[in-house]
Amino acid sequence: RLQLVESGGGSVQAGGSLRLSCAASGSAFTSYCLAWFRQAPGQAREGVAAFGARDGRQNYAPSVSDRARLSRDDAKTTLYLTIDNLRPEDTAMYYCAAVFWCRAPDLAPETYDSWGQGTQVTVSS
């Protein structure tokens, strides 16, 4: 399994942008499906965006589909999530997740078996 470490969270005003990073260690990075999830206090973990293994297909939650962009740097074994026009409802702990190959880049938490510790994003109005 990959070991995942998130970074890039912080406090930002509504309308701003953040780029989150997920640095992975382990082998066969390009064979993993990768995803970002978030969880606000008292709420269920929500899938935000996912990147398919090898074929590069991407999947976004409707709540961020017009504001988020995934990218990956295979040389650095790092996945990035940029969210523009941040809203207070984007406030949550953001987690990176991975699974070795997947049929499709889905947003169900049970698909993934490796998780990072999370990075906090706080958006003020």
Structure overview:
The protein has 125 residues and is mainly beta. Helices cover 0% and strands 50% of the residues. It has no helices and eleven strands. The strands form two sheets. Strands 2, 4, 5, 6, 9, 10 and 11 form a seven-stranded mixed β-sheet that branches. It has a four-stranded antiparallel β-sheet with strand order 1-3-8-7, with no helix packed on it. A hairpin with a 6-residue loop joins strand 5 (46-51) and strand 6 (58-60). The radius of gyration is 13 Å and the shape is globular. The model has no long low-confidence stretch (mean pLDDT 95).
Concise summary:
This protein is mostly beta strands and 125 residues long. The chain has strands spanning 3-7, 10-13, 18-25, 32-39, 46-51, 58-60, 68-73, 78-83, 92-100, 114-115, 119-124. It is 0% helix and 50% strand.
Question: What distinguishing features does this structure have?
Answer:
seven-stranded mixed β-sheet; four-stranded antiparallel β-sheet; about 0% helix; about 120 residues; 11 strands; globular; mainly beta
Name the shape in a single word: globular
Quickly give the structural class.
mainly beta
Count of extended strands: 11
Low-confidence stretches: none
Which percent range fits the helix content?
Answer: under 10%
Summarize model confidence as the mean pLDDT: 95
Distance between the termini: 39 Å
Work out the helix count: 0
Please provide the ordered H/E string of secondary-structure elements.
Answer: EEEEEEEEEEE
Radius of gyration: 13 Å
How much of the polypeptide forms β-strand, as a percent range?
Answer: over 45%
